[in-house]
């Protein structure tokens, strides 16, 4: 069951697809105006459980070095444009997403 992710920075939403059918939608935080989340086509390059600190309980690194999808130790930031360019999620949402994605899962980031 191939998964893919589409991130809408303007709506601050992440959508998870399985076989081209949307199976979930999550609220996210995105990059602030001085460090915007980069639009484009990427893939999940690394995965880590409990990376610590600002990354919350899960890290899913993108093929663009230094950028990723991760949990947060600041849940009040979800829905805001506050990150250094990464995609922040509530920890429980990041944990759910982590179960679905594999190394190589496509990620499309758009406005």
UniProtKB/TrEMBL annotation:
Pathway: Cell wall biogenesis; peptidoglycan biosynthesis. This is L,D-TPase catalytic domain-containing protein. It comes from Desulfosporosinus acidiphilus (strain DSM 22704 / JCM 16185 / SJ4). The keyword Cytoplasm does not apply. GO terms for cellular component: extracellular region. GO terms for molecular function: glycosyltransferase activity; peptidoglycan L,D-transpeptidase activity. Keywords: Cell shape, Cell wall biogenesis/degradation, Glycosyltransferase, Hydrolase, Peptidoglycan synthesis, Transferase. Residues 3-110 form the L,D-TPase catalytic domain. The active site is at residues 70, 86.
